[in-house]
């Protein structure tokens, strides 16, 4: 799991049975003491593998939306919740956004660079077993989580995804891995659950629509090569339509086939494009 | 019913704020570690590693 704190933005991403939405009220309160007011909120997730294990308010998307609606101040009046489907019923993308009037004005009336950023949220399942095995620690290795993480970063090639990034990594005992990459004002993050039967890895990064698209393609390719998943979804949040168009080409060149593509528009967040892929071998 | 394993799929939350004081450039980065821990306690995780730069702070969390 990861937390990123910018001067006016917080991103928190947690897995397992964590109760992420319970962070909203304390964060709003702490921010208020610093003279900061909430102006937008975006909550996203895929389909849980074990939905019945999730505690309230994560018991269903409906419960999550009710909880969000209740937590958020009334100035965030532009709200939308949507479940973006795929051809496979087991993969869908859950999105809730809320924004205040001021942010909506900015989003609609100001030119770039205010609308230049995009976010990739990538979820991968059925990881290649050889690749997944690299995220296990040897029993009683006596290493710290920091050292184990560093070794996993090197062994798997994760360190080469963005060689300019400063990496903060952690290897869990007996298995599992988390990494945050920081490169100037941009973050990236990877989380891995390697256990056979419910193996999972995620990759998330931000970029600019003005970045060289070939660099974006190379990053996507490196991520796929690290995990070699049988199933993958990529959610791209961006105001521009250009970025996501290079995604399918990059991923398909590595043996995955695009099975579905869904687009929806959200207040102040822009377009969310949800693409799913499965390995051709399936 | 299948026995539950560790849930890999994450929940992700992004919050944006605006400030009254345009001179204040650190904003949320002024939140002290105890305040962050209090927030993370509500979520049920803790900080296991941290790093920051000129632009932002990054924390790897348990779970």
Largest interface: A-B, 81 and 53 residues
> Which spans of chain A of ≥5 residues are poorly predicted at pLDDT below 50?
none
**C-alpha-based Rg of chain B, rounded:** 16 Å
Output the structural class of chain B: alpha+beta
The secondary structure category of chain A is alpha+beta
Q: Helix proportion of residues of chain B, in percent?
A: 10-25%
Instruction: Give the proportion of residues in helices of chain A.
Output: 10-25%
Neighbour order of strands in the largest sheet of chain A: 7-8-9-10-6-11-13-12
Question: Order of SSEs of chain A, N→C?
Answer: EEHEHEEHEHHEEEEHEHEE
- Shape category of chain B: elongated
Tell me the span between the first and last alpha carbons of chain B.
Answer: 24 Å
Mean pLDDT figure of chain B: 93
Overall, the morphology of chain A is globular
Ranges of chain B where pLDDT stays below 50 over 5 or more residues in a row are none
Strand order of the largest sheet of chain B: 2-3
Oligomer designation:
heterodimer
Q: Gist?
A:
The complex is a heterodimer of chains A (282) and B (63). Chain A has 7 helices and 13 strands.
List keywords for this structure.
heterodimer; A: 25% helix; 36% strand; B: alpha+beta; two-stranded antiparallel sheet; elongated
